């Protein structure tokens, strides 16, 4: 039996907590032994949750790496623009690394981290958790089996519902590149670009074009007479689809973002939450009053691959329901499905049948490939990636077919950066991966 795997978590916010929580469900496999985070309130809450010694809690990464190595690996879940700055000293200290996506915010950072990881001989896995879901991993197995032939075209789409769009990408810290240093297609949809390119990993992307805009927000689109704060002075508080009252109090959505400003307060009441939204809580501000810094709420990407195949990805913010769709057309058949339904259909060419094809419906809930991911976020991928990372670091075997090593993730990141270049220049751009 493998020994208990010891990890230090850098950035103990939402994503850091998600991965660290695996230690509570599987304590024999994973133990959190250190925390690096500048927020003392958050650190103390999580220190108690994971029973981390006070002497193993650090404000700065410099203080952490000044200590002798006392863990097997690091989960780096800091903000996007801090990933390279915080990862390099960790790798140089000799730690292997599970690194949250996006791992870099520009092309130079991609190459810098790759060079350091190679020099230090460390294992780096990027948190593209969708690969670890039964839905996408089973589709990948069908593609790799050759059952649908050579891929002619692949289409993927991510619909981001209106309240997710508002809380994260309008009111939240990902609304502007000035705050998060990453365009929306990188911050939100590098998962989806990774899936598209993973399915197409027998070839490489060659050319890319992209179009997108901010269609819904900005002060010029603010309803006439709307106030500055939903619950303080806005007449539309009981009818607006972006109402803080509706989305954060009545429906209690997105609590890990919305209530962070009162996280250290004991015995928080509904009145405390209401007062914060009326006064100082940024999530109580009118959704049309935030600076968007040229960010988009929808974007389309079109890719031509070296072998002549094509691919497209649509990111659409503001939909009624969040949904990810995929449609792969090959020379012998096709696959079409919706992630949230946990189902996809395989159609195979059959010229001697009445309609020219045969069809098989696959319900991934019946596959039961990964019981450890049950009830986990991102279709179970949040849990499974932690287990896979531990197995990869502890063993001498090659990474699993789902594992997104740093070298794998470089391709999708570079493709995203070229997509942004294409969008802003309104030109077709060549990709060199």
Keywords:
alpha/beta, 17 helices, Rossmann fold, Dihydrodipicolinate Reductase, domain 2, 3 domains, globular, nine-stranded mixed β-sheet
Describe this protein's structure.
It is a single chain. The protein is α/β, with parallel strands linked by helices. It contains 17 helices and 15 strands. It folds into 3 domains: 118 residues, NAD(P)-binding Rossmann-like Domain (Rossmann fold, 3-Layer(aba) Sandwich), CATH 3.40.50; 226 residues, Dihydrodipicolinate Reductase, domain 2 (2-Layer Sandwich); 71 residues, no CATH class. The chain has a 9-stranded mixed beta sheet. Strands 3-2-1-4-5-6 form a 6-stranded parallel beta sheet, sandwiched between helices. The chain starts with a strand and ends with a strand.
Sheet/helix structural class? alpha/beta
- Which residues form runs of ≥5 with pLDDT under 50? none
Within CATH, the superfamily of the largest domain carries the name Dihydrodipicolinate Reductase, domain 2
Give the % helix: 25-40%
**Envelope shape:** globular
CATH topology of the largest domain: Dihydrodipicolinate Reductase, domain 2
How far apart lie the N and C ends? 40 Å
What's the number of domains? 3
Counting DSSP E segments of at least 2 residues, the number of strands comes to 15
Strand percent estimate: 15-25%
- CATH class categorisation of the largest domain: Alpha Beta
Which helices and strands appear, and what pairs or packs with what?
Blueprint: E1 5-10, H1 14-20, H2 22-25, E2 30-36, H3 40-50, E3 57-58, H4 61-66, E4 73-76, H5 83-92, E5 96-99, H6 107-120, E6 124-126, H7 134-145, E7 151-161, H8 162-169, H9 177-180, H10 184-187, H11 190-199, E8 205-213, H12 230-233, H13 244-250, H14 255-258, H15 270-278, E9 298-305, E10 310-319, E11 323-330, E12 333-338, E13 343-349, E14 357-363, H16 381-394, H17 406-425, E15 429-430
Parallel strand pairs: 1-2, 1-4, 2-3, 4-5, 5-6, 7-10
Antiparallel strand pairs: 7-11, 8-9, 8-15, 9-10, 11-12, 12-13, 13-14
